[in-house]
Amino acid sequence: MVEKVTARLDRIMENLKKLSLIESRLDSMASTMANIKSTLCRLDADVTVLKEGAGKRDKKINELKTLINYTEDVAKLRKDSHDHKAQLDKM
Predict the structure, then answer these.
(1) Is the pLDDT confidence value at 86 over 90?
(2) Is the pLDDT of residue 47 over 90?
(3) How far does Cα 75 stand from its chain's mean position?
């Protein structure tokens, strides 16, 4: 009878060791998940900053395109004016 109890206690102890190992692994996984979550939060903040910067750059690019179009229009008007003046001088 004592042997049965001892054998059963040994199995219980083995199971407790396994449970302890499982608990340790779960704690490690929980820590890893917390680190991943923290990293994702930082990455999300970085993406937000990058999006804001991209929006500002897009706005600046559009302003530059407008200025280029304006400059091209002015250059064309100057050329047209010069051509018209040349025609007037011929007349």
Answers:
(1) no
(2) yes
(3) 42
